[in-house]
Design goal:
This protein has about 190 residues and is α+β, with helices and mostly antiparallel strands. It has 7 helices and 5 strands; from the N terminus they run αααααβββαββα. It folds into 2 domains: about 1-60; about 80-175, Alpha-Beta Plaits (2-Layer Sandwich). The mean pLDDT is about 80.
Length: about 190
């Protein structure tokens, strides 16, 4: 490189150095400057990963507390045998409707859905009642320990405008039987 620069005249040297400087600036602008934030992004990702790892470690340490809370909540719930759940819900609905004076016009077959902790029974009803009777009926359903709640409610006045026709979808949640893990691990051994 020195031989090449030595052969050039001073103006040509200045021009060659200026072209070289411009070339270095263009290459830096194209390839280096866009990556200045990469180190900050890497540090941020590392901090996030450390926080998540700490959260996971804390959760693993607290898992025995969570298991005891789950057992406590399992023991608090109302226990209804799976074969009696649909009958229990229907009896409770009929009892509350008689106490409130709500007339059940029509009811559809119950539908069952399960998740990890609960079995949910869904019952569709078509009822007729005054507004006070309907409010009393819905209040008593929600206030009972049976875990029944209203999922959907449609209201229309009847032809005489003295009563309300209501289409109600009720859902009752029952605690799902949890298999005993100790007995299943003992059988596996």
């Amino acid at each position: 490189m020195k031989k090449y620069l030595a052969q050039l005249r001073p103006l040509e040297r200045r021009l060659a150095v200026a072209v070289l400087v411009i070339l270095i600036i263009v290459l830096n602008w194209a390839f280096v400057w866009p990556h200045f934030s990469d180190l900050d992004n890497l540090r941020r990702r590392g901090d996030t990963a450390r926080q998540k790892l700490e959260l996971y470690r804390k959760t693993v340490v607290d898992s025995s507390n969570y298991e005891s809370l789950i057992k406590q909540f399992e023991n608090q719930g109302q226990s209804v045998a799976p074969e009696d759940q649909s009958v229990n819900m229907l009896q409770m609905i009929q009892t509350q409707s008689q106490l409130s004076g709500v007339g059940i016009i029509n009811s559809s077959p119950q539908m069952t859905r399960t998740n990890q902790f609960f079995t949910e029974q869904t019952q569709n009803l078509n009822v007729i009642a005054t507004d006070e009777q309907l409010v009393d009926f819905l209040y008593k359903l929600g206030n009972d320990a049976s875990m029944v709640r209203v999922l959907d409610l449609e209201l229309q006045p009847d032809a005489s405008r003295q009563h309300l026709n209501a289409n109600i979808r009720l859902v009752a949640s029952y605690q799902k039987k949890v298999p005993n893990l100790k007995s299943t691990t003992a059988k596996a051994k």
